[in-house]
Structures are given as C-alpha cells and as structure tokens.
Specification:
Layout (H helix, E strand, L loop, with lengths): L1 E2 L11 H15 L18 H5 L2 H17 L2 E13 L2 E7 L13 H14 L5 E7 L3 E8 L2 H9 L12 H12 L7 E7 L10 H10 L2 E8 L4 E8 L2 E8 L4 H10 L4 E4 L2 H14 L3 E12 L1 H19 L8
Parallel strand pairs: 3-4, 3-6, 6-7, 7-10
Antiparallel strand pairs: 1-2, 2-11, 4-5, 8-9
Helix pairs in contact: 3-10, 4-5, 4-9, 6-7, 7-8
C-alpha cells in the first residue's frame, strides 16, 4: 500500500499534544477527599462505567488517525512489465576437417570447440543461432533457430569426416552469409572457428568477407591450436599412433576477415583460452532488452472513511447513553 499525499501523515504528530492535554485535564478535574485510612475502600466493586470512561476518547483518537489516513489517500498498486527483446542472429561456422582431431586441446580441438559453443548457446536464450560446418566444402548443420534444444542436439552430433576433407574457409563464410543475408535483425554475426589455412573452395576468404560486409554482417574469427607442434592421432593397423604435426593457422587472413567486417580475431591455444574467447564475444554482442513498466493504482480510502465514521458514531452513542452523566 502507498499514499498519494504522504505529507498529510505528519498531522499524526498533532495527536501527541492532544493526548497529553487530555491526560493532564483528567488529572486536574478529578475530585479529591482526604481521609485518614482508605483501606476500607480497597475492595469496593467498581462500576462497568469506570472501564468505559476513556473509551470515547480512544475512539476519537482512532477516528482522527483514520481521517488523516483518508487525507493521505491510501492506494494499492498493480504493476507489470512489458519486455521487448531485440535478439541477435548468429551463425557458428565451424571447421570439421580432420586436423580438428589434434589433441593439443582436450580431448581434441573439435570436442573442445563443441563444449564451449554449447555453453555459448545456453547463455543466449533470446538469439537466433545456427551452425554451418566446413571442411573441403560447406553445408548447413542447423539453420537459424531459437529452438536451442534442437540446436544443441545437432551440435553434439557434429564430427569430422562428414564431408570431403580440406579447409574451405571462404565457402564456410559464404554459406553462413546465405543464412543471414535476409535476416531482419539489426545485428548479424558469424563466429568462424578454424585451425588451418584455406586450401579448398571456389570463394576466397577475403571475397566472402566482402560479401558479408555488404550485408552488414560482422565476423569474429577464432584460430584454434597451440603454438608449434600438436599431437595428431594416426590409425595404424587397428591401433592409434600419435604423430606431432605443425600447427599452421593463417592468422593474417583471419585478421583481415575480421577487420573487413568490423569484427575481431582471437587465438585460442588451450581450452581455457577458447572459453575466454567465447566469453569475450558474448560481452561484445549483447542482446538488447527494452522494458516498459506499467502500473495501476486503486484508491482504498473508503474503508478508512467507513471505520472513522463508525468510531465517531460509537463515541456519540456512548456519550449520550451509558456515559451521559459522567463528565
């Protein structure tokens, strides 16, 4: 409950001197009689009127309090919010070439990328998110959707060997652009993750970046892989042997792709670094939330006014009936 004219509540302070005046007045108006011993009157039964003597004054005080509350206009409020969410459309372009099986990240680059991408998706419930996979060619694993349960299931099923091997970065970008170009969202983003150098595809990475820029799409690029050599599992006669392979990431091209579209390039050399990269992108691309607040107020003075009227009425009845002859 709130009060529209809360300043009227200060009138309650005026009741203090009124109560003091009443107490002093009653004390001075009581008749006294000096006697040598009052013990004989100790057990004299008192009339019920003695117990009602101060009730009219108490009723008057209560009535005044209630009248002041009426002047302060007590109100109850019903409030609610109307949220307008402006989501971001995001395509995750992920490299699934066989080099992603290297185990410089644990358990390997691909699984580490899937785990961190799943956390990223779970943290953005209001955004349309899709997945594009690329190796020697590219295809859409999941179009833009807000059904993140389906998206996460498809992400979990992602693995190497689904398509021709190689690294067609330009084709991966072009496929993601195709999914985003007709989007009505004000912010359109591609997060491209790769561990290699473009060596396949009909579209160069920089040409694909220019196409993305023309549609207002920003690209964040991530180079995943440690520095130097990385252990790569190589099947031999029914067993797996590990061969150290050099880590070759075309950081110059990835930086140019990001710069062309006003994005950023990140390097992830470990699981923790990869997680930090996605957290940084999450901070850069925040969903806009506009909240309108509404409230409805109802006047509640009627009950206070009715109670004040009943107190006054009861006081008048007592003074003019039971307590009529008592000063």
């Amino acid at each position: 409950m709130v009060f529209a004219n809360i300043e009227y509540l200060f009138l309650l302070l005026l009741l203090i001197p009124y109560i003091v005046w009443y107490i002093m007045r009653r004390k001075n108006s009581e008749a006294t009689l000096q006697i040598s011993d009052a013990r004989v009157y100790a057990h004299t039964p008192k009339s019920y009127k003695n117990y009602l003597l101060h009730v009219p004054f108490a009723l008057r005080i209560i009535a005044l309090v209630l009248i002041i509350l009426v002047l302060a206009r007590p109100q109850t409020t019903d409030s609610w919010q109307n949220s307008e969410i402006e989501g971001i459309d995001i395509m995750l372009a992920m490299d699934v070439s066989t080099s992603m099986l290297a185990e410089d990240l644990k358990p390997n680059r691909l699984e580490a990328a899937k785990d961190v991408a799943a956390e990223f998706i779970n943290g953005r419930p209001n955004d349309n998110i899709g997945i594009t996979l690329f190796a020697g060619e590219s295809f859409t694993q999941c179009p833009l959707t807000v059904d993140h349960a389906v998206l996460l299931n498809l992400l979990k099923d992602m693995k190497c060997g689904l398509i021709e091997d190689g690294t067609a970065i330009g084709m991966g970008i072009a496929n993601a652009v195709t999914r985003l170009k007709d989007s009505k969202a004000k912010s359109k983003v591609i997060i491209l993750l790769t561990d290699g150098v473009n060596n396949k595809g009909d579209i160069s990475p920089l040409t694909a970046a220019e196409i993305a820029k023309s549609f207002g799409i920003r690209i964040y690029t991530i180079g995943v892989g440690t520095n130097g050599m990385a252990p790569y599992p190589y099947p031999v006669g029914g067993t797996v042997q590990y061969v150290n392979m050099p880590v070759e990431i075309d950081e110059k091209t990835l930086t140019q792709i990001a710069g062309t579209t006003d994005g950023n390039y990140f390097r992830a050399t470990s699981n923790s670094k990869l997680k930090e990269v996605y957290e940084e992108i999450d901070k850069l691309e925040k969903t806009k939330l506009n909240v309108k607040e509404y409230s409805k107020r109802q006047e509640e003075y009627r009950w206070f006014a009715l109670a004040a009227f009943l107190c006054v009425l009861l006081e008048v009845l007592l003074r003019n009936s039971i307590l009529k002859k008592i000063p």
